[in-house]
Amino acid sequence: MSSPESSEYDGTEAAPHGKARTTEWPLWEIFIRGQHGLSHRHVGSLHAADAEMAIKNARDVYTRRNEGVSIWAVEASAIAASSPEEKGALYEPANDKVYRHPTFFDIPDEVGAM
Amino acid sequence: MYAQMIKSTGKGIKSLDEMEPEERAFQERIDAGGKIEPKDWMPDGYRKNLIRQIGQHAHSEIVGQLPEGNWITRAPTLERKAILLAKVQDEAGHGLYLYCAAETLGVTRDQMTRDLLSGKMKYSSIFNYPTLTWADMGAVGWLVDGAAIMNQVPLQRTSYGPYARAMVRICKEESFHQRQGFDIMMKMVKGTEAQRKMAQDALNRFWFPALMMFGPSDKDSVHSAQSMAWKIKMNTNDELRRKFVDETVPQAEYLGLTIPDETLKFNEETGHYDFAEPDWEEFFQVLKGNGPCNTERLAARNRAWDEGRWVREGLLAHAEKKRSRQMAAE
Amino acid sequence: MSTDPKFEFLCRMGDNALVLGHRVSEWCGTAPVLEEDIALANVALDLIGQTQLWLGMAGEVEGAGRDADKLAFHRDVWDFRNVLLVEQPNGDFGQTMMRQFLFDAWHLAQLTALIDSSDKEISAIAEKSAKEVTYHLERSSDTVIGLGDGTEESHRRMQAALDLLWPYVGEMFLGDDVDAAMKDAGIAPDPASLRAGYDQLVGDTLAAATLSKPEDDFAHRGGKSGARHSEHLGHMLTQMQWLQRAYPDATW
């Protein structure tokens, strides 16, 4: 496909905005309470075929499998909102993947900010 | 950076007085540094513009997995393999956060994916360049992630709430990405003669494409003004590009590598580096589909999508069966 | 290569993780759905981590100055000790997940038994790894069930995968001199002792997946002993080892 304008991909007509096709996995909002947390906080969303899978996917995507976290998954369409307040993001890196921490790499000071 | 081929409304920016009350309240909130949330009123152009930009940003993360994924199976140590794999995994995660942010605007991930696969939506031009040696893994982390960070840090203050929050999470993860790239380069330049040559060669091939990441020169960038007013775009292309050069040149000097630009010179008067612009003709060719890897990148994504269809459908069918059985049992 | 049975045993554990981790990492960027891409990468990352532990210990036990990287990147096919199952190509996603499930079910049982090993270091590695593999097995069995009992097409593909890979299951339960020595020393279980539990778990999962276990119990062998690997491993090593082999005096 050398020119992006010419479409070889035979996708069928997109459904109107906001309506999921029947072959699409629904969207789930994810809430996580960390090991030392007091309540569940909204961390984001993901797609899954059902609630059970949503929780498992959340473990992979949002906790990188930290143990001892509690996960809630709610189908996005089930949430009623007045003026929505999306909760702050919670990110907890897996503790044994130390290279994820910027301090793992010894970047000399002369190089400047990185 | 992700706003390639986004058309403006074509009408020019309205002043506050020219706006209807709803739009004026909307613009005033943005001017005051407030956030627009999914269910708030927003002009159609703002919504469309955001869907396009966030979507293309997400597509860039996903397609961006490919040039680095190219080297996972050939990583030279177990540690490097794990680090590279973690980085590419992060990119999938970033794509996911961004698609979810875009979905709050009334479009689904699958629709955006179809638009990517058909060529209707774009992704960052840099990912149409090939990764040819292990040193490219260093160059990509150092330069490409470096450029992305330059663009992404200010976007943490963008006006649309979900996009801003996705950017905060992404920025936390991005720092390790650039550092691991630079770490690879340091190892290479201190290594064997072959490794030093590899490192220089990688810089030679990635320098100008990295500069292109910031988009066309401001004077050729017609549609920025509205995006800036809406705080969807936080800095001009040239501002960011200049900042990138200023930060990167000393880093290259530290590595003992030569940036492939003979005109590069520190300007005492301006306090910035003077540097050559990339070949814009090449840039527009890449946007049109004539970059070294456009065909392969899109083919790879199409293949993954097509070959994965039975999996997505199968798991969905199973979920529905489970639901029916549960209901029947009650 | 040394004939110390403990060294052999550690290479077996490490090479399984190395080869399977490599295979799974091949999916990065091309999985059927984003969430799956991330999940598979987690599995691969775990396995690479386990590789470093097992092969690291192997190198220490051997005492010839070889570390995990040396063992991973500088041995040839005949010195590898992974079971044949894990070197099989990815095929389609169904084949990958079936291979994963059939291996995970054995892997968890083996690691659980190793927690009681008389060797403290092996016990520690096993305990950490077992936590990760519990998760691997949960995921792979869920996927096998989901795709087996999904659409007609997904069912057909999973059955085909099962039929293709079943002949590689038996090798995981074959005992030889190395296994006998490990059992005598209280270090590791007799492989055959894990079979009954395995059959139970696999049977339950396949039933839930509406898949039929093949009748023929024939088992290919030659992987864990190194006597005869499949042609696939050689090709895999040309990818994996190439940089280190091409630039032997470089550090990365």
UniProtKB/TrEMBL annotation, chain A:
A Pfam family: PaaB
Sequence intervals crossing the membrane: none
Residues covered by region (Disordered): 1-20
Protein name: 1,2-phenylacetyl-CoA epoxidase subunit PaaB
Species of the source: Sulfitobacter profundi
Gene giving rise to this polypeptide: paaB
